[in-house]
Amino acid sequence: MLVWWWWRVAAAGTVLAGVLSQNVTLTSTSLVNQFLLSPLAVVRLENSNCDADLGRTGTCLTLFECYARGGVKTNLCGNGFGVCCLIVAKENGVSYGNNTLILKDKFDSGVDITYTIRRLMPSICQIRLDVRRLYLYRPENNGKCETDYMTINQDDKIGKICGLTENIHFYLDVTSEVVFTFHTSAGVSFTRDWEIYVQQLMCDFMSTNAPQGCGQWYWGTSGTIDIWNNVDPTTADWYYLNDQSYAICVRWEAGYCSISYTESLQFRPFCSDLFERPFTTTLLRTCDTSPPTSITPLTYTVTEGLQEFFVGFKDGSNLHQGSPGLPFQNPSIMYVQNQC
Ligand SMILES: *[C@@H]1O[C@H](CO)[C@@H](O)[C@H](O)[C@H]1NC(C)=O
Ligand SMILES: *[C@@H]1O[C@H](CO)[C@@H](O)[C@H](O)[C@H]1NC(C)=O
Known about the structure:
The chain is mainly beta. It has two domains: 2-86, no CATH class; 93-339, Sandwich (Jelly Rolls). It contains two helices and 20 strands. A four-stranded antiparallel beta sheet has the order 1-2-4-3. Strands 5-7-11-9 form a four-stranded mixed beta sheet, with no helix packed on it. A hairpin with a 4-residue loop joins strand 3 (72-77) and strand 4. It starts with a helix and ends with a strand. The relative contact order is 0.12. The chain binds 2-acetamido-2-deoxy-beta-D-glucopyranose (2 copies). Residues 21, 23 line the site of one 2-acetamido-2-deoxy-beta-D-glucopyranose. One 2-acetamido-2-deoxy-beta-D-glucopyranose binds next to loops.
């Protein structure tokens, strides 16, 4: 009987291996799937991203794994051997899965919600957040989040987060399960909304985890650095957030000899907060003590060393506020790597 199963598994494996694309990795000797109706059926799909419905990103898993992790199947993926599994974190519950989605559609009321995400294995030492949208009420003039906020129980790179954020990523070191806490105040009418993916990363040389201390880690030959609360509400309400301490790191790509940076027109931090630019001592403390009246965009090229910015926004007593046209805005920094 056992021999017969081995034969059947081996034969099915040969057939399947022939039709699977490079994007599907078989890591188990006991193959086969629903379609052969075998009790030994396990196809290990390389847990790659896939397109779920509504423009969302899921993980390609077998149907069994998807259900085991409390996910919802959407489209087929992995040449039809997997389902694009969307694991939506449970409100006030515990979730277990990679690329878990913390999601709440538009609402306007006061809530207190936690989402707990358990690590897949003890060797998970970092998470990467991909924030598609985080719409919370704005910070106070001093950059503190008092009406609405999100906090995370791991790492101390960021304190309370609020305001309007779109399309940024962020890395946090983790040592146990991760608890996200959201608070919104009933007293303020505002449309809140969030969609945040949480990737679990192992700390090994194979992984894509960020170097120690880097809250953000950019790679590729060009890009735009954007931090929390990066959406301009076109009022005077655009402030950088208080209680932040991390590095923004840009990987220096092979074959490129320098990186040119261009900062957004309005960015200039208040002088009691720290914003260090990489190896550009003359620009290190380019800051203001009252809202800037006229500034030109800073551009500079850094030719050697670590490409790291340091964000140390720790002075919650100063005004992080300006006025329309004269704000202490968030940085938005474009970079391009220059070939040797
Ligand atoms: C494999 O994945 C890449 C990127 O996700 C995609 O561009 C490519 O078409 C895929 N190949 C196959 C054979 O599905
Ligand atoms: C989680 O998914 C990401 C990509 O979506 C991948 O790089 C990472 O290795 C996965 N983590 C684990 C533990 O499989």
